[in-house]
Amino acid sequence: MSSPIRLGIIGAGAIGNLHLEVFKAIEGVNVAAITDSFLPLAEQRAGEHGIALVHPNPETLLADESIDAVVIAVPNKFHASLAIEALRSGKHVLLEKPMSIDSASAREIVAAKEQSGKILMMAHQMRWTGLARALKQEIDSGKLGRIYNAKTGWMRRKGIPGWGSWFTRMDESGGGPLIDIGVHMLDLTLYMMGNPKPISVYGSTYAEFGPNRQGIGDWGTPNWDGYYDVEDLATALIKFDNGATLSLDVSWAAHTAAISEEPFLHLMGTEAGASLIGSSGRMVSHANNIIVESSITPLDGEDSRLLLNKHFINCIQEGLEPITTAMSGYTNNRILDAIYESSRTGSEVKLVWE
Ligand SMILES: NC(=O)c1ccc[n+]([C@@H]2O[C@H](COP(=O)([O-])OP(=O)(O)OC[C@H]3O[C@@H](n4cnc5c(N)ncnc54)[C@H](O)[C@@H]3O)[C@@H](O)[C@H]2O)c1
């Protein structure tokens, strides 16, 4: 039996704490160290969860040769510098979404990952729900045929997280709902579509609630001395090199009815379609001009976050490439950048791939 993987947690906030709880339940993992720029929080988590080492900062944790892998769960602005330093220090990395605040810095993470030979996995738990796994099986079996159009989104009505904190500051977050929850839907949809190459993007963003301190939700801690300079709604059309199209709609705050609040994904294939809305899933096809609809039965299994974190550990142990690759994180960042650019310029943005 191999020795346990020694894991360090960078960022002891809401999501860092969630990772910590999940990893503690996984065999073969020793959550050995933690750090946070607000040290008392790291100390508190260490006390609560019996973590032996509290590092004063990420640099000393990354220099600690006894640590094999790290989780990076800090504000988006710090993702790139910490992920790059972690990879250069020989650590495997589980990186919270989005990969980075822009695609230029995300590209640098990809380069560091390639040079390091270490694992870099993006944390997109939505790929791991029983429903998403069941749908992926249907797609892989050919049931949908060629997927030529998709519609996805997540329209929160009153969900601005941490008004005035890093969440709502462009320089720290890279954007609003688009980069926060839109990136999850984008990631899930591209995965289901078989990762076609995006070639052009057209989009608009709006900030109608946040600047007026309206539409505030429960996630994060507001900082009323802070500011709000990100969007609170975004809409976009993305075209792919195989001719497929994807429309994406996300908001933190909007005047929409309660029934529209669940995250959704509709896939239109040549043989059948599929819809995921919240926790329900339907397959739809036409037979002799009659619409046939059936429910998608979620695959049995553990919680999506547990499966995600187990996958990270399994990839390290077996030397496998994770399903949420560094390239997928970079591609998401390219699309997000292009939506912001299109909104600024009012024009379609063509994506050129190196
Ligand atoms: N996968 C998901 O469903 C999901 C959900 C929410 C947030 N997230 C992502 O997780 C990350 C953290 O979000 P959160 O909600 O936990 O935020 P948070 O504000 O609750 O926690 C962030 C923590 O990082 C610490 N920190 C800030 N800068 C640091 C630095 N340079 N070094 C070390 N620690 C630092 C802060 O003190 C804070 O404790 C973000 O990237 C966010 O997008 C993912």
Write structural notes for this entry.
33% of the residues lie in helices and 25% in strands. The protein has 354 residues and is α/β, with parallel strands linked by helices. The chain has a nine-stranded mixed sheet with strand order 14-13-12-11-7-10-9-8-15, with helices on one face. The chain has a six-stranded parallel sheet with strand order 3-2-1-4-5-6, sandwiched between helices. The longest helix is centred in the C-terminal third of the chain and has 20 residues, at 326-345. Nicotinamide-adenine-dinucleotide (NAD) binds next to helix 1. This is Inositol 2-dehydrogenase/D-chiro-inositol 3-dehydrogenase. GO terms for molecular function: oxidoreductase activity. Pfam families: GFO_IDH_MocA, GFO_IDH_MocA_C3. Residues 5-124 form the Gfo/Idh/MocA-like oxidoreductase N-terminal domain.
Give me some keywords for this one:
single chain; 354 residues; alpha/beta; Rossmann fold; Dihydrodipicolinate Reductase, domain 2; 2 domains; nine-stranded mixed sheet; six-stranded parallel sheet; 10 helices; 15 strands; binds nicotinamide-adenine-dinucleotide
Amino- and carboxy-terminal Cα gap: 43 Å
Q: Which small-molecule species are bound to the chains here?
A: nicotinamide-adenine-dinucleotide
Overall body shape: globular
Parts with pLDDT < 50 across at least 5 consecutive residues: none
Biggest beta-sheet profile: 9 strands, mixed
Number of strands: 15
CATH topology of the largest domain, what is it called? Dihydrodipicolinate Reductase, domain 2
Radius of gyration: 20 Å
Strand content: 15-25%
Strand order of the largest sheet: 14-13-12-11-7-10-9-8-15
